[in-house]
Specification:
about 350 residues, alpha/beta, two-stranded antiparallel sheet, globular, binds 7-[(3-aminopropyl)amino]-1,1,1-trifluoroheptane-2,2-diol, binds zinc ion
């Protein structure tokens, strides 16, 4: 399968995130994608190509124009105030406050559009995030054109970004942009499966009231794990979307058996949905050696995941999400994609 990649992800390089009462170096750093690229090339997983450039229109199909306009102008506004360091929010409109009126104060605006203090906005964030969406859209176009699979090797990640908010290192929801592009290209049904350690709250929110895009996420139980306020098993969709969202929260420290049992159920739901395309939010922070997560997957499990996804027999778009064991992230991706391809061949 082709990998779509651009070195413009280096433009997004957050310095510090707020973590356990102090500012610490960002976990989500450029080396992650560099290691993944190296592994994809070393394992000969497929040609690496540059993304095409798309307009904002396909991104506006899942994100509010007001939100995108803010992202586009954010660094300019911040820099005009004389700041050179990354911007981090410090105040948020919680229940009872007004979110419909955009404040003039920049930090108040940033808080309006975000849900945590761990997602720095930098000089190159907008360009990197837009390129990430171009990468996902290029992968989507390849698959819509008949390719069996593609890998969107993008960062920053996307699955926490919702219709009009950023957070969890995410700004534009690449998986959602790609899924919507399949629909806009004529697909009746699409499925998104999120296997990142963290609940894909942004993806869930974007499609929560829709029946055409089935959204599922296997993740650490939000009672103890980030993003905490969404991702419970009783969130099954709403209105027309009732029955088209499924969450599989597993306790931190869960066994691989429990993880694969959830995957089996999720795959059954995908088959029943009969989608024309499958989008995988591929997080590698389920790895036993991940510094911020607590599942226990390792090489054999990543191979098993790739094989199991191949068995669904669907056009499949993989998009990179989290994974913070930087030295191992490349091998972990390569195990999933390599075994996916071998299973197709075999
Ligand atoms: C607060 C500490 C909490 C945030 C964890 C974010 C996880 C992000 C991710 C993604 F795929 F989006 F990158 N840590 N400052 O792995 O889900
Ligand atoms: Zn994650």
């Amino acid at each position: 399968m082709k990998t779509i990649y651009s070195d413009r992800h280096h433009l997004h390089q957050g310095q510090l995130e707020f973590y356990r009462g102090e500012l610490v170096p960002c976990f989500e750093k450029p080396e992650r994608a560099d290691f993944v690229l190296q592994a994809v090339q070393a394992r000969g997983i497929g040609p690496v190509i540059e993304p095409e450039s798309f307009s904002l229109a396909p991104i506006e199909r899942v994100h509010a124009p007001r939100y995108l306009r803010f992202l586009e102008r954010a660094w300019g506004m911040w820099a005009a105030l004389g700041h050179t360091r990354d911007a981090l929010p410090a105040v948020w409109p919680i229940r009872g406050f007004r979110a419909d009126v955009e404040p003039d104060n920049f930090i108040a605006q940033l808080g309006l559009y975000s849900f945590d203090s761990g997602t720095p906005f930098t000089a190159g964030t907008w360009e990197a995030a837009r390129t990430g969406a171009d990468i996902a859209l290029t992968a989507q176009k390849l698959i819509a054109g008949g390719e069996r699979a593609a890998f969107a090797l993008s960062r920053p990640p996307g699955h926490h970004a919702g219709p009009d908010f950023l957070g969890g290192y995410c700004f534009i929801n690449n998986a959602a942009v790609a899924a919507q592009a399949f629909i806009d290209g004529g697909a009746q049904r699409v499925a998104i499966l999120d296997v990142d350690y963290h609940h894909g709250n942004g993806t869930q929110s974007i499609f929560y009231e829709r029946a055409d895009v089935l959204t599922q996420s296997i993740h650490g139980d939000p009672k103890t794990e980030y993003p905490f306020y969404l991702g419970h098993a009783d969130e099954t969709g709403q209105g027309a979307g009732e029955g088209f969202n499924a969450n599989y929260p597993l306790p931190a420290g869960s066994s691989n058996e429990a993880w694969f049992a959830a995957l089996e159920v999720a795959c059954g739901r995908i088959r029943a949905h009969r989608p024309e395309a499958l989008v995988i939010s591929l997080g590698l922070d389920t790895f036993a050696g991940d510094p911020i997560s607590r599942f226990k997957l390792e090489a054999p499990e990543y191979q098993r995941l790739g094989a199991q996804l191949a068995r669904l027999g669907l056009p499949t778009l993989f998009v990179l999400e989290g994974g913070y064991a930087v030295a191992e992230i490349g091998d972990n991706v390569a195990h999933v994609l390599g075994s996916f391809e071998e299973s197709l061949a075999g």
